[in-house]
Design brief:
Radius of gyration: 37 Å
Number of helices: 24
CATH architecture of the largest domain: Orthogonal Bundle
Distance between the termini: 69 Å
CATH class of the largest domain: Mainly Alpha
Structural class: alpha+beta
CATH topology of the largest domain: Hypothetical protein af1432
CATH superfamily of the largest domain: Hypothetical protein af1432
Number of strands: 15
Oligomer: single chain
Shape: extended
Helix content: 40-55%
Largest sheet: 5 strands, antiparallel
Length: 718
């Protein structure tokens, strides 16, 4: 390529136009991938914490279990009298066969093994810290790695229950952390991925049979606690399992699936590359046009100057009077200014396009998880109440500095929320720690006013916390006085951690939802250039449709799709000639057939946007009639989507009461009579009945319904 003025200018133009987009796309991709990795780590931490808490619970359970056996008079007498047949029949053989304990050993006080049952493990059990503690008269339980497997090991002195006695021996129980135990732990902690327990020699237990093959890829230095690594479709982290003294006995590997995160990053990468390619093509075309505009007068000037240099003085340029060269210089200055403005405008539009595409992609993923935050929290409240066998369960969120109830679930004894629960939740949010209240009538955290109207007796409240602070609280209540077990606080805290993550996703969803609504509004505004009636018509139609849909008990997710469909139902008119759209006379048959194509065009346009695919069918069916005589598919009755039937009634009323190019608006009463007269033929009778009962629509009521569709409405509606 020859580096003449034209080519140099073209390269510089492309760098200035496309360079900012490249930097912006890289920043968006980097920040998004970092945020997704953060969510992935939080899932791993939550599942690992729950698994370790379950192991601590099993240690306590095994300690209580061995205590029941170690204080039996029959056991003590059998050891004291050397009746090993009784010991084998009632302890070493019976316990492994009838309980979750896999290993049983009985020693005399000198360390001699008298009887054994269950698993056979190598090594010296007598030297274990738990056994030595039992020799001192203390029942002890802890985690131990025995023969390449992780056990909950417990030891106790065998003494008589009914009389003071010296220990007749030492009994040792061991419960193996098996594959089934890990599967139960995985289900209890959410079941998002898979778990495995590693020792230095092999895989002790795993939820996935293929884990042994994964273990074979590890080297001697690969067992570092906290290490995060990728394994095919999973992200994994090694978590140290420590005994009571803090020594690491094995490693817990927590793995969560990467599919959702990989898909999101892949979509962002594809969209960014596509946006860059489009911007590059536009910049290249614009650059060629501008370069041609500049190079042509320069070539003419160079030709004239060369001719003068060779002695050809017969040129038309008049330098002293600045005729041709002066005009060319003035034109170049004007053109340069225009090019600068065009480059700046192109760069800004490219950045906005990349931002919108990135937001749409992230929003689609979030919507797939939480389409209706309010219903999701209500479902969680019902589940938590059932899980804890409680009388009430409430979810609180911090909104504009205040702790507000976002969801409530109550039984027949407690159908309404408790003022005492509200006060306790506010205290937990302020202090950031859990709170157990055995008796609300005497507890100092409950005010006298709340006690006077309180029907509940006991409460358990935990904070909903994440890295940036406490965002709410989770509360369960009991009508009768309730003694909280040691597992209830960790269980509710684990649930609270999962809810905090879900709420973080809901917040991101709501923010992105607003961006989508702005995109929808921008698409609808594009129709103003062809049909001035369409813009104001779409706004009023959306308000009426949402009001009718709310009265017909549509869910929040369905109302949101109905709102978008109302705004965009005539988007296909972009493809209809303006001469037909704004014709003041009645349309001919050919013109009507062309106009009828706008529903199919609208469906084709909207179906290209992943998030708006659910409303594409609504837009296509917006002009189908109840009696089957509509277009484009001739659907009838229940074959027509409910949202499309609502749109048809609202659209007809708005059209009748609005001035059109070919007629004046009808009076309101006449329009309502037309709806009633055509119910059962053109319109769904049930939709018409709801419309007539609701009209005139209250603006405040409609605004509240639309506001409820946002994340802020989640707490305001409670």
């Amino acid at each position: 390529m020859t580096w003449n003025v034209r080519n140099r200018f073209l390269v510089a133009f492309l760098i200035v136009a496309v360079g900012p987009l490249v930097v912006f796309g890289a920043l968006v991709y980097s920040r998004t991938s970092s945020a997704l990795r953060g969510v992935e780590r939080q899932q791993i931490v939550a599942q690992a914490s729950g698994a370790r808490e379950i192991l601590r619970g099993k240690t306590r359970d095994e300690s209580a279990f061995i205590h029941d056996y170690s204080v039996r008079d029959g056991f003590h007498n059998a050891l004291h009298n050397g009746n090993l047949a009784w010991v084998r029949s009632n302890v070493t053989e019976w316990v492994p066969a009838n309980s979750t304990t896999n290993l049983v050993r009985v020693f005399d006080t000198a360390g001699k093994s008298l009887a054994s049952g269950g698993d056979t493990v190598p090594g010296d059990l007598w030297g274990k810290a738990e056994v030595q503690a039992a020799r001192r008269g203390v029942i002890s339980a802890d985690l131990e790695s025995l023969g390449g497997r992780l056990y909950v090991l417990a030891a106790a002195p065998v003494v008589a229950q009914t009389r003071p006695s010296r220990p007749a021996g030492i009994v040792v129980f061991g419960q193996a952390v098996s594959d089934e135990v890990l599967r139960d732990m995985n289900r209890f902690t959410g079941g998002l991925g898979r778990l495995a327990v590693y020792t230095q020699t092999n895989v002790s237990a795993a939820t996935d049979p293929a884990e042994s093959k994964a273990f074979a890829t590890f080297g001697p230095g690969d067992f570092a606690a906290g290490q995060v690594f990728q394994e095919g479709d999973f992200t994994s982290q090694l978590v140290a399992i420590d005994d009571r003294d803090g020594a690491t006995v094995s490693m817990l590997k927590v793995s969560v699936p990467r599919q959702a995160f990989s898909d999101a990053l892949g979509q962002i990468n594809s969209i960014t590359v596509a946006a860059f390619a489009v911007a590059l093509i536009i910049a290249l075309l614009m650059g060629l046009l501008v370069a041609h505009t500049i190079s042509t007068p320069l070539r003419r000037l160079a030709t004239a100057a060369t001719g003068i240099a060779h002695g050809d003085l017969r040129q038309t340029l008049r330098l002293r009077r600045s005729d041709e060269i002066g005009d060319l210089a003035d034109a170049f200055d004007v053109m340069s200014e225009r090019v600068a403005c065009q480059v700046e405008d192109l760069s800004e539009k490219s950045q906005n396009l990349a931002l919108e595409i990135s937001s749409l992609s992230a929003f689609g993923m979030t919507l797939a998880r939480t389409a209706d935050p309010h219903a999701e929290l209500q479902r969680l409240a019902d589940m938590i109440r059932a899980m804890h066998d409680a009388d009430t369960a409430s979810v609180y969120l911090v909104y504009e500095g205040h702790t507000t109830r976002a969801a409530f679930s109550g039984g027949h004894q407690s159908p309404v929320p408790s003022a005492a629960a509200d006060e306790l939740a506010a205290w937990v949010v302020a202090n950031g720690c859990s709170l157990q209240v055995a008796d609300a009538q005497t507890d100092e955290h409950v005010s006298a006013v709340a006690r006077g109207v309180n029907l509940m007796r006991s409460f358990l409240v935990v904070p909903l916390a994440r890295q940036e602070g406490v965002i709410g609280a989770l509360c369960v209540g009991f009508v009768d006085q309730h003694e909280f077990g040691p597992e209830e606080v960790p269980l509710l805290s684990t649930i609270g951690g999962q809810i905090a993550i879900a709420l973080q996703n809901a917040e991101a969803y709501e923010k992105l939802d607003r961006m989508y609504l702005e995109t929808v509004t921008a698409l609808a505004a594009a129709m103003e250039a062809k049909d001035q009636y369409t813009a104001s018509h779409a706004d009023s139609l959306a308000a009426m449709a949402v009001a009718v849909g709310s009265r017909m008990r549509m869910s929040d997710g369905e109302l949101r799709m109905l709102q978008y469909a109302a705004v965009l139902h005539d988007i296909g008119k972009i493809g209809i000639p303006g001469s037909i759209l704004n014709k003041p006379d009645k349309l001919t048959r050919q013109e009507f057939d062309a106009m009828a194509e706008h529903t199919i065009i609208g469906e084709r346009i909207i179906s290209r946007i992943d998030y708006l695919v659910p409303i594409a069918r609504i837009i296509r069916s917006a002009h189908e009639r109840w009696d089957g005589s509509g277009y484009p598919d001739g659907l009838g009755r229940e074959e027509i989507p409910l949202a499309a039937r609502i749109l048809l009634v609202c659209d007809a009323f708005d059209a009748m009461t609005t001035d059109r190019p070919y007629r004046r608006a009808l009076p309101i009463d006449s329009a309502l009579m037309e709806l009633s007269a055509n119910a059962g033929a053109q319109f769904d009778p049930r939709v018409v009945d709801v419309f007539l009962a609701a009209y005139p629509f209250k603006v405040a009521e409609t605004d509240r319904v639309i506001s409820r569709l946002s994340y802020a409405g989640l707490v305001e509606s409670n």
